[in-house]
Design a protein that fits this description.
Strand order of the largest sheet: 13-12-11-8-7-6-3-18-20
Number of strands: 20
Number of domains: 1
CATH class: Alpha Beta
Shape: globular
CATH topology: Penicillin V Acylase, Chain A
Number of helices: 7
Distance between the termini: 39 Å
Order of helices and strands: HHEEEEEEEEEHHEEEEEHHHEEEEEE
């Protein structure tokens, strides 16, 4: 990548020098934000763990969650539709979390073994994004009922109708998250975004076993590390600098989050589902990492592999594979989610020609086998 700076830290240092010359009587906000940036950015710039999530807030209760999945190696992902009334285990360990699903849902399942994200029939969306440094457990949680990361998002989607119910389930803290590594031993360090059909959102993070939940309708963008408190300071810095005139343009997690928040809060509002999907898709594309893009000295930079859109009002789940020509979706309203009905699946690897509604491409399948 051609740049006058050798690193993201150099770029921020240069901005800092300019900023110290411009500081005014309200410069305390700059100082706080800059301190956060300088302490954090060296650890997060150009990591190979890029993902972006946004919440488009339209008119007439149109809320669309968009996200990108970016990773250094391919993550084969298929879509499964599960009915209500299925008994599930959170892990194969003794005393694991177990439940019977109250709601049907569509899941995006990586490696046919773990739920990355999904949307249920009530319009609740749960999305997992990489967040390096996450530690799920400690001495106080090790004896709690285990649940694997492969099933954690499904647990929330199966039992909760809205964000409030999801937050209450998590705050009860009667679980201990674990899970297999992937991609040659990478630890599945994640944080989650949750949004419901009323536009209420939560960001869920774990730090040394302590769960932190941020709630609010203003949580419209998130990416990877740093965790949310520090990310807010970085976003505040760029907003104070002037918004559209100084939007950061790299593929680092803070830059993508800043751009995503700016655009998703400044695009036109609509009540039209198709127009809204196009708007949300374009915002996620703006924060995506170009396919087969590389940065000199950073061979593991993550290209975007796929994007999804969850229309929480109309219960449409869109899927956009970057190497495919079309955008397709599953209409949950047209799926038979009654107890006893079969699990259905779309083989995304064969979706090159899918465009528009793809319910007719769903086929009966056995439930996926979790990678506990």
């Amino acid at each position: 990548m051609n740049t006058p700076f050798k690193s993201e830290t150099d770029r921020i240092d240069a901005l800092t020098k300019v900023e110290t010359q411009e500081r005014t009587t309200d410069g305390w906000l700059y100082v706080i934000a800059l301190a956060a940036i300088l302490a954090i950015v060296a650890a997060v710039s150009f990591r190979a763990d890029a993902c972006t999530r946004i919440v488009y807030q339209g008119n007439d209760s149109l809320y669309i969650v968009g996200r990108s999945l970016d990773w250094r190696t391919p993550i084969p992902t298929n879509l499964y539709v599960y009915p209500r009334g299925m008994h599930k285990l959170g892990d194969n360990k003794p005393g694991a979390v177990e439940w019977t699903s109250k709601y049907g849902a569509v899941y995006a399942v990586g490696y046919d073994g773990g739920v990355t994200e999904g949307m249920n029939e009530k319009g609740l969306s749960v999305n997992g994004l990489f967040c390096k440094g996450t530690v799920y457990g400690n001495a106080n949680t090790e004896n709690l009922p285990p649940i694997s990361l492969a099933m954690f998002p499904a647990w929330i989607l199966d039992l909760c109708a809205d964000t409030h119910e999801a937050v209450e389930l998590l705050k009860a803290r009667n679980f201990n998250i674990g899970g297999a590594t992937f991609d040659g031993g990478t630890v599945s360090a994640l944080h989650w975004g949750i949004t419901d059909a009323n536009g209420n959102s939560a960001i869920v993070e774990f730090d040394k076993g302590v769960i932190t939940i941020h709630e609010g309708r203003d949580l419209v963008a998130m990416t990877n590390d740093p965790q949310w408190n520090d990310m807010q300071a970085i976003i505040a810095y760029w907003e104070k600098k002037g918004g559209q005139h100084t939007l950061p343009g790299t593929v680092s997690s803070p830059d993508r989050c800043t751009r995503a928040k700016y655009f998703v809060t400044n695009v036109e509002k609509t009540s039209d589902a198709d127009v809204g999907a196009s708007i949300a898709r374009s915002v996620v594309q703006n924060a995506s990492v170009p396919y087969l893009y590389s940065v000199e000295g950073e061979p593991n930079l993550s290209s975007t592999q796929w994007r999804s859109l969850s229309n929480l009002r109309d219960k449409r789940y869109y899927f956009d594979v970057v190497t495919n020509s079309g955008l397709f979706y599953i209409d949950l309203n047209k799926c038979d989610l009654r107890e006893g009905k079969p699990v259905m699946k779309i083989d995304v690897a064969k979706s090159q020609l899918y465009v528009g509604e793809a319910n007719n491409h769903l086929f009966k399948t056995a439930p996926f086998t979790p990678m506990y």
